[in-house]
Amino acid sequence: MADIAIVGGGVVGCATAFWLHRLRPQLRLILLEAGALADGASGRNAGFILPGASADFLKDCSRYGETRARRLWQFTRENRTLLVRELDPTAFDWEDSGALIVAGSAEEEKRLQEAVSWLRSDGAPAIFLSAAEINRRLRARGYRGGLYLPEGGCLDPVALVRYLADRSEALVLTHHPVLALEPCGDGVRLETPYGSVRAGQVLLALNAYLPRLLPETAAYVRPVRAQMLATEPAGRRWVPCPVYSHDGFFYLRQLADGTLLLGGARHLHLEEEVGYEDATTEALQADLERYLHAYFPQTEGLRIQCRWSGTMGFSPDGLPVVDQVPGLEGSYWAAGFTGHGMGYGFRMGRLLAELLLGYTPDGYDLFARSHRSAFALERFG
Ligand SMILES: Cc1cc2nc3c(=O)[nH]c(=O)nc-3n(C[C@H](O)[C@H](O)[C@H](O)COP(=O)(O)OP(=O)(O)OC[C@H]3O[C@@H](n4cnc5c(N)ncnc54)[C@H](O)[C@@H]3O)c2cc1C
């Protein structure tokens, strides 16, 4: 019997296991994952570590109110600080490059410029760069102005997840999907195709897949697909840091060998990109290529080496949701990271570990389902 079972081997599950071990080394932890570690969104993402719910402070203010937006930025900035302070950043290729948030419209450009003084008043460094400066730095053409956030960065998400699982010293059972949960004595029995596992408490870190195990959570998280592509190595590096443009609907980075990773274009195909189907589509991939060639004409002859998709969990208001598992005292679920789980994940793992240990952690009210006002399904974005 384990003290705590963690279900889901993505960044959130593995970060929670890491913090549980850090806070109570004597706990017996078991981590159950349906596939391999990082098989879900955590192993397919761009690895951007950005602040806030949207990396756009004034947009976060208009959506969540100024006080909450400031706290969200503080929480996600802590995520980045903890990643580099508590872990060995070389284990997951952390690039301390900063990040560029580039406007896709005149309105967005104005908003990003206005955000500088707000961010600086909270101690968050931010520099507004003109269109000319951004195009010069990226050797690109056609970008508008935007923000350089020195605290942004990027990493190898698969390496991070494996490293966290390893450091947690949990018993990791991959290829063990949890099919059902049953209250049992003081704890819970988790059914898998190979038998059952007993634990005192459970954390469900399943993001998009949570409603498949707990159908009542379908009101709080729904599956949304994201697609990416990678070019062959360009041999030269034009893009020195992650670029998040057009309200985050396009995101691009370049690896050391010149390989360009590009994702997004979901806003051009909103309806098709809802659901669990794990496949790329020609139409969206063509939009990604159009973007790449428009802003970086020098990439025109580069072959596309790889295309892939991943399933994200979106919440109705765009923020992660945390709640108790119904009928299981002391057990929790966390989902709905809405395309930003790397920006929250490691810090969220600490919050969830503290919750499982019986504390009321700092920041819990930001994400608790019980603290949310009107959750309306039609607001799914
Ligand atoms: C293409 C793409 C690009 C992205 N880019 C970024 C980015 O640059 N920055 C950023 O912050 N975010 C990004 N995201 C979002 C980010 O990847 C997610 O928010 C984050 O990985 C969610 O982590 P998680 O641990 O909650 O979920 P997941 O990584 O989805 O983990 C859930 C795990 O649960 C497992 N599972 C499912 N059902 C069961 C079951 N019944 N039993 C056991 N295990 C089960 C799955 O196999 C999976 O491994 C991107 C997402 C995608 C798809």
TrEMBL record:
GO terms for cellular component: cytoplasm. This is FAD dependent oxidoreductase. It comes from the Bacteria. SUPFAM superfamilies: FAD-linked reductases, C-terminal domain, FAD/NAD(P)-binding domain. Residues 3-355 form the FAD dependent oxidoreductase domain. InterPro entries: FAD-dep_OxRdtase, FAD/NAD-bd_sf. It comes from Rhodothermus marinus (strain ATCC 43812 / DSM 4252 / R-10). Pfam families: DAO.
